[in-house]
């Protein structure tokens, strides 16, 4: 947070709050180390970088029993091993206990009640403007399907990735572990789509970890009018997985 950003925050608070009604403290730069000082305020604003720098210190931020912690731009802490992410996890918050008990823990264990609560909570707290709201005046969507030929490299890589994907998804389905590993399955589908767009989008370390494919044993390829498509049951497995998620997350 730069000085100009701090000034902007103060300005916005002045515009959107009534003077004297909300006490706000900017925990940034020259800041207090007094626990009781922070408890005098209704809101305390800080940055991920500031929290991360105090991870191993006796910071008052980690000793206050906060009512609720609000994380803006939370993609900044998507790496669970990053110092600032661990600092955020160290914060004490009363509402976090409810989230862990009613949503996070059930979702981690594939409990359908947790998967049902998650979209219900997100629909309540998230602002989502869809195209049908007409806020931007966007033209009607036009879809055009274009068939392209994969290069030999792209086709070989896609088939290797698809073979591994089918093995993983079938294992999850046969062991009834789809709900517990839905993020993995979505990641697999994403990688297949990335290869169709550009091989360079797929991480190199992931490509290197794939086993070699038996070219002579490949089947399911249909050549028609010089266009190559894949006749694969992975698509049906993906739709099967998506239907499971819809049933579990329907509100």
Explain how this protein is built.
This protein has about 250 residues and is mainly alpha-helical. About 50% of the residues lie in helices and about 5% in strands. It has 10 helices and 6 strands; from the N terminus they run H-E-H-E-H-E-H-E-H-H-H-H-H-E-E-H. Strands 1-2 form a two-stranded parallel ribbon. Strands 3-4 form a two-stranded parallel sheet. A two-stranded antiparallel ribbon has the order 5-6. The longest helix has 23 residues. The protein is elongated.
Overview features:
mainly alpha, two-stranded parallel sheet, 49% helix, disordered C terminus
Q: For the terminal residues, how far apart are their CA atoms?
A: 39 Å
Order of helices and strands: HEHEHEHEHHHHHEEH
Oligomer: single chain
State which percent range the strand residues make up.
5-15%
Rg over C-alpha atoms, rounded to the nearest angstrom = 25 Å
Number of strands: 6
Number of helices: 10
Share of helix, binned: 40-55%
Side-by-side strand order of the widest sheet: 1-2
Structural class based on helices, strands and sheet pairing = mainly alpha
Ranges where pLDDT stays below 50 over 5 or more residues in a row are 213-237, 244-251
What is the 3D shape?
Answer: elongated
Mean pLDDT: 75
- Sheet with the most strands? 2 strands, parallel
Topology record:
Layout: H1 3-16, E1 24-26, H2 35-38, E2 43-45, H3 48-53, E3 65-66, H4 83-90, E4 92-93, H5 94-108, H6 112-125, H7 152-174, H8 182-197, H9 204-209, E5 221-224, E6 227-230, H10 234-249
